[in-house]
Amino acid sequence: MKVLVTGGLGYIGSHTVVDLLNENYEVVIIDNLVNSKIDVLDKIKKITGKDVTFYEYDLCEKEKIEDVFKKEDIKAVIHFAGLKAVGESVLKPLMYYKNNLMSTINLLEVMKDFNVKKIVFSSSATVYGEPKSLPIYEDFPLSTTNPYGSTKLMIENILEDLYKSDNSFDITILRYFNPIGSHKSGLLGENPNGIPNNLMPYIVRVATGKLKILSIFGNDYDTVDGTGVRDYIHVLDLAHGHVLALKNPKTGLKIYNLGTGLGTSVLELVTTFEKVTGVKINKQFVERRKGDVAACYAAINKAKEELGFAPKYNISDMCQDSYNYVKKNKDI
Ligand code: WQD
Is 148 in the active site? Predict the structure, then answer.
């Protein structure tokens, strides 16, 4: 079965492509390389021994998507492509709304025209805003605090309205918690442009000396040690969740949390990283980061029951694999 993966050269997209190829799917990637690198194609080939068809196209150009659907017998779509930096979205909201919404609407229109109705959408736990209690269930109230998160919530609403208008669509919305880690080969990993916003890419750059010190945003939260708590999930587990979503016999509109169900504080993650790698992380406590929630972790019962989702990797694996990636890729 041929699957179109938009944003397939990105961090989560590339790990998902590897898993798809290993499960004998044929893969077509559309990626405009705005936040990914072309050499990831070779790395996917090196890991799997398989080729993928690649189009360096921008989903905001609808005729390009039509071109792909004319040439390729696409049966399903996994949609990762989109701008995803929270801070940048606050500074450039129009760019985020235009890019993330226009690209998705173009994609859905072409899917409808070509009668391709199966889509898995990359959403985010950020749509829960400040959770009313923990763990977070899929039926919790939704709210967002930044334009990036709002684009994710708007796209979820678009998908829900599309389904109501045409229930031949088979839609899966996956709400990721905090993806970290890298492929065991050290060939694929998280390589954001510029200074990392997220915690783990920052930690590994302090470990390699690329960055001097880790600033921990707040140690006065009502948590185990005062620092922020998140549900970190290994990118390999997250990638496999997408394959399980494709195989899910249940049709219609489905929403699943993809996390581990465990909360880990910033200090606990740093301590585990130091223990696993033997590298001391230079750190300081600073004021809270605007928009952060104190704690956020998932209930994954639904994904377990309906998808057979069962995360395999723990925090130590995530730390080890993240460090392994930057050690093998000196330019990071
Ligand atoms: C994790 C914890 C910070 C950096 C965001 C998006 C989410 C998804 C993942 C895209 C928090 C603390 C961080 C640092 C720190 N992105 N921290 N020092 O904010 O939970 O989630 O990224 O899909 O949608 O909302 O992830 O890694 O930025 O922060 O102390 O230099 O680490 O305060 O407690 P976050 P994060």
Answer: yes
